[in-house]
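re: ur msg from earlier - yeah i can do the guanine complex, just paste it... oh wait u already did. ok heres what im feeding in:
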Amino acid sequence: TPDTRQPTLLLGQTLSFTANPFEVPFEDAVSHETVGAVLIRDGQIAAVGQAETLRALNPTAKVIDYGKGLIMAGFVDAHVHYPQTAMIASWGKRLIDWLNSYTFPEEMRFASKTYAADIAGRYLDLTKAHGTTTVASYCTIHPVSVDALFEEAQKRGQRVVAGKTCMDRNAPEGLMDTAQTAYDQSKQLLQAWHGVDRISYAITPRFSPTSTPEQLDAMGALWAEHPDCLMQTHLSEQTDEIDWVLGMFPDARDYLDTYEKFGLLGERGLYGHAIHLTDRERARLKETGAGLVHCPTSNTFIGSGLFDMQGLMAEGHNVGLATDTGGGSSFSMLRTMAAAYEVGQLRHNPLHASQLLWLATQGSARSLHLDDKIGNLAAGMEADLVVLDLASTDAISQRSSRAEDLWESIFPTIMMGDDRAIRAVWINGKAA
Ligand code: GUN
Ligand code: ZN
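and the outut:
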């Protein structure tokens, strides 16, 4: 078919990953052009290279010059709760009390489609302003909360993963379904939305304490019928939570076993937090290739613990990075990378800037099994991009102006940057 749309050529510094900087030295993991260009055509990245070369090859392209701006893949946030947007930064509680005091009352409001649509739009605006182009979100038990997010994502041409959060115990009246309705409603939503435009459905049992064995079993059955879907849940976030789970499932060998028993452990499984893991859990997660999602601002905000990034990466786990809004205290993946760095320092294992940027793009995309479509600046990928201003505030620019290499020029923005560092966002090949 003939190419009818005029291509766009973005000029700036470009940063692409050619390998995993946890596996090879960082200088071998990236490709960087100081005067680079990205050619966008029909919603896809058609080429990445030197500005001069791509200009010569594409004389009719519309040119947008971002100067020293750093063009890279848009951020991928692998674990969020969009319904918690309006109660982010709620004070002073640990997980179970935080859920009961702040989270569940807010999630009750999503019985209203109007309210859900308002928050979904607000959430996607906020995350876009922070450079995030894809999220994997929990919704609430209400099917309309799923429709609301997918409809907003569809309007924006945005790639989004989400699912109805299922809970049939230990939650307030009005915020519970049953094993049967969770199955039926999830199935209906999955059939209506999975694979429509850029939407993927994720089967979403919230976590073992809020699902009966019957509900976990029903979710496992649904996943077995739709193995191409992702399944997202929470695992081993706080020690009190683990004790509670083991008391509730006396036959389980460990927390992971409460999922494994019901067919909820698999390569397309995404396990948020995964902090306090036993050796058996680590081995089984590794064996299955399941995705672990590090949520560092949440883990410090709710007081959960320190994720073992370097240990898990060394074992070859599949790890993504996420804000966990609103247990997380920020919508920003820059702030989230900074928190991941700080947690690394507390474990005497600092992450390199290349590793942080990889986690926020490639790592998360890989955990979502979307790394063939998003998460890198490379020909053939969907054109979801962020352009970073590496001198967005006085504090950052006075430091980055002294930088002696690329990483020193980027690290101040990772540590101190916010939405002012986001110069532009492109979603599906369009300026967003
Ligand atoms: N565990 C179960 N539900 C939640 C949630 O909404 N946020 C966090 N951080 N942990 C959870
Ligand atoms: Zn969560």
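cool cool. The chain has a mean pLDDT of 97. ping me if u need the other ligands too
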